[in-house]
Design goal:
The relative contact order is 0.17. Helix content is about 65%, strand content about 15%. It is built from five helices and three strands, in the order ααβααββα. Strands 1-3-2 form a three-stranded antiparallel sheet. By secondary structure, the chain is an alpha+beta fold. The longest helix is centred in the last third of the chain and has 14 residues.
Length: about 90
Amino acid sequence: MGNTYENNAKVFKALSDPNRLMILEKLQRGEKCACVILEDLKIGQSTLSHHMRLLCDSELVNSRREGKWMHYSLNKEGCKRAINLLREITAL
């Protein structure tokens, strides 16, 4: 039971930062290479890695390696679970 709460908290942690929200917005238009995200957000590689780790751990984002670069995309199932989670905890 505790594991469910921990997993749910990961979603909200992932959504609680402006940079991560901007990343999610960019990924709505399709898969992006880390290099593109870096240029758009003007943040460092280590900061991006931290944000992407949290987004991937929350299962909102998928990652795949191509050569030396990581490519990221929205995880449709993870996003659906996040939407349902918010609906459940805010139901009156």
